[in-house]
Amino acid sequence: MKLLTRAALIVFVLDQASKYLVVHFLNLRELGEIDVASPYLTFRMAWNKGINFGLLSDNGDLMRWILIAVALLISIWVIIWVARESMGSVAQIAAGLLVGGAMGNVVDRIIYGAVADFLNMSCCSIENPFAFNIADVGVFVGATGLIIFSGQKKTT
Question: Does residue 58 have an active-site annotation?
């Protein structure tokens, strides 16, 4: 469980630090967009009140608290599942990435009322209209890792 905790903490701290830096220090909230390595990387401020791609964002404050509760419940379930199944190192790290990312987005919903997304990546003349954050990467990579590695047991 140490690996899960460390991975979760690393993703959480990186996510929250990057959001603070971009939203407050670089003032992306006011500027809206900053070209970093155009067209490949742009900081583009987006406040996501729903889930992926803004789905379920129409129900206001009620949906905010439902999404916080769902993220907390899933995180608790993942922690219990990993502990009970005595999963291997890679699965524990994957679980930590998922939990750390989920907690990063929970903090955003509590503080801002929405998730602060700011990373926008485009390539090869394809303009990506969506933004994401480090927490989203943690959730995606963590969930994928759990799917792939959850069957591997801890070696003694």
Answer: no
